[in-house]
Design goal:
Blueprint (H helix, E strand, L loop, with lengths): L6 H4 L33 H6 E3 L9 H14 L7 H6 L3 H4 L20 E2 L18 E2 L17 H12 L7 H13 L10 E3 L2 H18 L4 H19 L6 H22 L5 H21 L8 H11 L6
Antiparallel strand pairs: 1-4, 2-3
């Protein structure tokens, strides 16, 4: 069976059972899910073999830094948004790659020109849908502060409205909502690296997963809902790795075994098992072996620009004039 028809096996139990269930014929389904919401004539290698660098200022205060990490992980998982957005695989990061903008975002029915989105779309929202197609430019959250209301005390309420009303998601745990606001505030043009883009790698996505699990470990005993969401964020990063190793069954088996372990830990955290935090720490330590295996197979994966170009040329339908 085509692996891309079974993403729920990788992300079972994290409200993403319909990932990959896009309205595309099997023979034209793109190699990567996110290719379904970029312009057909985009440079797919530039978009998917690289990504914007993150403009993040991390404070020295441990509590503040932990809050930002919670927000950073939540920002990157579709589970946060829920509803139709989650079923399509959309997260905050889909529109704001690395916390920036996304000039290549063009979701069918939700965008006009590339880099725009309709935030009052009835497809995603039963509350804010206005029946009018009025896409707006997607802002760069790392852009000039005077153009963004990120310093406003009302930012948590604004984010809450986006999740609950714009996307019909569930209200996030208080620590997640506070973390999202702290993460957005910590994005700044002053923190941007010299390089505007960097390669997308399996190590990078695994690091995201490990960071999310570190945040989960820190709150597993006293904030189980937040810890469960952090584990879901880690599992979502594994999915993004999984879809790039489609032709490598050994790597897929390793990834799915790692995900199954996280699924079990997610249940343990949800049930209040006292040893769950130690299990998260063990998973992070063991992920070094997974990283080494993925690195060995990277050249044949869709992390490699040449393999990515071959796959997209072979699987995507021809351009039409």
């Amino acid at each position: 069976m085509d692996r891309r028809r079974r993403p729920a096996r990788l992300l079972a139990g994290v409200a993403l059972a319909a990932l990959g269930g896009l309205a595309l014929a099997a023979d034209t389904r793109p190699p990567l899910r996110a290719m379904s919401w970029i312009p057909h004539d985009a440079d797919l290698v530039r978009v998917f073999a690289t990504q914007p660098t993150e403009c993040l200022t991390v404070p020295t205060d441990p509590a503040a830094a932990r809050s930002i990490e919670i927000g950073r992980a939540a920002f990157r998982t579709p589970v946060l948004l829920g509803g139709q957005a989650a079923r399509a695989g959309l997260s905050c990061e889909s529109c704001h790659r690395s916390g920036r903008g996304n000039p290549d975002f063009q979701f069918p029915g939700a965008s006009g020109a590339p880099g725009t989105a309709d935030v009052t779309l009835s497809l995603f929202s039963s509350r804010r849908g206005n029946g009018v197609h009025d896409p707006k430019p997607i802002p760069d959250l790392s852009g000039p502060r005077d153009r963004l209301k990120v310093a406003s005390a009302g930012l948590p309420d604004f984010i809450h409205g986006l999740i609950v009303e714009e996307f019909d998601g569930h209200a996030p745990p208080p620590a997640v909502l506070a973390g999202l606001a702290d993460y957005v505030r910590a994005l700044s043009p002053a923190a941007c690296p010299k390089a505007a883009r960097e390669p997308t790698t399996p190590r990078q996505l695994l690091d995201d997963a490990r960071r999310a699990l570190t945040a989960a470990e820190a709150v597993a005993h006293d904030d189980r809902p937040t810890a469960v969401l952090m584990i879901a964020a880690a599992r979502a990063r594994l999915f993004l790795i999984d879809e790039r190793y489609a032709a490598q069954p050994r790597q897929i088996a390793r990834l799915r075994a790692a995900d199954a372990d996280l699924a079990a830990l997610q249940t343990q955290v949800r049930d209040g098992r006292p040893d769950a935090a130690r299990g998260l720490a063990r998973w992070r330590a063991a992920s070094a072996d997974l990283e080494a295996a993925l690195g060995a197979g990277r050249g044949a994966s869709l992390f490699d620009p040449r393999a990515l170009r071959r796959a997209t040329n072979r699987r995507l339908p021809p351009k039409t004039s």
